[in-house]
Amino acid sequence: MKTLILPILLFATTSWACQVQRIGAVNLAISHTTESTVYYNEERTIPNLPQFRASNCSQAAMNGQFLMIALGPEVVDYEDTVKGVNFTKDFGYKRCEMTGHPFVRANDHEIRKEKFNQDWKLIQSCLEVTVEDEGNQPLQLPAKQPGCEMQRLSTHKMSFNGGFCFVKPNFASSYLLKLQIKKECQNLETFAGLGINNLDLFGAINLYLAGDASGNSGSLKALSNLPIRLSVNPQANIIPSSDDYGIEYPTFPENWSMPDIHFGKVSVNPLGNGMVQLETQLLVNNNCPKVCKDKVCQSACDYAQPVIAENSLYEKTNKGLELITTWYDGGIAPARFQGFIKGIGFEVAESLIEDGKTYVIESNMYDPKYDYERFKKRIQSRLNTIEQQLGRISNSSIPAIQEIPRIHVTRDLPGISTIPGLVFERSLDNVDRAVDQLRSYLSFKLWPPYFSKVCNGAACDQIKDPMLTLKAEFKVLGRTEQKLDVSMISIKRDSYIVPKYEMNNLHKLEIKCE
Question: Would strands 26-31 and 220-232 be described as parallel, antiparallel, or unpaired?
Fold first, then answer.
């Protein structure tokens, strides 16, 4: 069977298909201290199991279609914008090699595969999805399920632990889906015996209508995307962990452990209407040593970490550097990520970037949570703008996948060409769902924690201002309607926790795949 990998942003079909209740993102944290699972949303912990419904499937029943329920972890390439959700447990990716990098060791194919397998092991061992048909007829399940291992619990209910399962709607079918953590994973000793690191993963449950239950159907329409974050609270006796909210809340490492950050390239792109967009890349390495105790292994870099900088744009003149503007930009480095964080860019007046002049962008990182909160406010402002411009859900048809980057709310969205014949209906509802997902990643208050120290390997120090400063000097050589020709002159790094350097041009980083 071909590897089934779908983008993390998926969109809704027309209203006559099965209607899926929208509940935002689902966040689950396993606490071995209390032997419990913490469920939480953007604002607070919640007491009940996350659940949602897919109902009104009569048209799907009439057409002989199947409801496909897919669960899997997010897979991120060497850029934070290139990501998808894998539903097949098959790594199946090209063997790639990173060269010309500034890191001690690059994330080669085997390292990335190990991370992938750990994510899948956590999902399959600990996360359970139950599907119950609340209609008046038994739950119809195809005899062969090529994409998942499921267990029938009763005439109306089944469960599975990742992959993609199919159910056959009746005219009165209404499916109740619940997510929960298995009891055995809440016990530290039992969990340690599974051979899973305490870690932090992103994933999704996606729902589709399929023409058949083979797993190879070209007739596949997306109904819903439910982002999931599943993490295991760190053991405080191994990795110092945040305790700002107490043990009944999700906790994360309290030391920020990825200061090995370097400047990537700078680009300037015309937007029209007298504006250009400044785009900067950060080359980051979210890898650090594991610490093992009593069969439990942990690393602060097995958790997602914010990578946000306060950027300042200067013009270089005979009198020195003259400040033009400042902004916060960056992103979130997933667990064990190594590669580029692209950010969302920043718009400035075209008249401020002149041909033949030299400019400097200085990126300062102070306190990761402090910087993140300011970046979040910028994102929230953008989200408010898009809602005012586009309104709420509408049946009007627009090319939503192109629309979002065009109004500069978020980064380029991944394509949907991985499955031939896959067609998504597009409407304003698509934009609304994309906005909801951005909120789920950038707005919830229980992450990131307050960081007390910054660490480089085993060496840690108190966070001081700034803990890291990156500078890129570049010259504008000319421009066309499509782009500005920019020549990088030098990059510089200054820090008290990682080695300093200054060099001409950029790191000669390349990614080669077989």
Answer: parallel
Helix boundaries (H) for 26-185 = 58-62, 109-126
User: How far from 59 is each of 64, 170, 171, CA to CA, in Å?
Assistant: 9, 9, 8
- Distance between CA atoms of 11 and 14, rounded to whole angstroms? 10
pLDDT score of 361: 97
Give the Cα separation of 268 and 289 in Å (integer): 37
pLDDT at 399: 22
HSE of 141 in the Cβ direction (CA atoms, 13 Å)?
26
Q: Omega before 73 cis (within 30°)?
A: no
Output the pLDDT for position 67.
95
The predicted-structure confidence for 341-395, as pLDDT tens digits, reads as follows: 988 888 999 999 999 999 999 999 999 999 998 888 887 776 666 555 544 333 2
Residues 165, 29, 32: CA angle, nearest 5 degrees: 115
Dist. CA 105–CA 287, nearest whole Å: 9
Q: Which tokens go with 211?
A: 């023409």
How is the chain split into domains, by residue range? 5-252+373-407+418-442, 256-370+456-513
Residues 284 and 482: beta-carbon distance below 8 Å:
no
- 357, two tokens: 């002049």
pTM: 0.84
Cβ atoms of 232 and 198 within 8 Å: the answer is yes
* Average confidence (pLDDT) over 182-207: 91
CA angle 181/186/191 to nearest 5° reads 105
CB 162 within 8 A of CB 127: yes
